[in-house]
Amino acid sequence: MRNVLDCINAFIPLLSTEYELVLGRKGVSVTLKISFDKKDCFHLMGLQYLADRLELSRDRGKVFDEISDGTITIEKIESSDFYNKIEQRVHFLPLLEQMIDRNPH
């Protein structure tokens, strides 16, 4: 199972990436631009649901940095009573870039 540090490390390259998707049908198209911020990673992991971890209820960008540098440990996050609610998110988030980049058509 992947952990929150895997999420952070996989998310770092996305911080300097912008995706532009053009969706169209019957001659009508819409352009969708997707960019990423450290705060997005926090929410995509679901850390807002770990209500018993007060160190996570601060600036989301700082929480990202503190997980990255080890100030907030994987063990601390995974010991939350609510971690089971976000475990699947954490497992699949490191695959986000791969999922977006994959174009089956």
Automatic annotation (TrEMBL):
It comes from the Bacteria. Residues 4-103 form the Phage-Barnase-EndoU-ColicinE5/D-RelE like nuclease domain. Pfam families: PBECR4. InterPro entries: PBECR4. This is Phage-Barnase-EndoU-ColicinE5/D-RelE like nuclease 4 domain-containing protein.
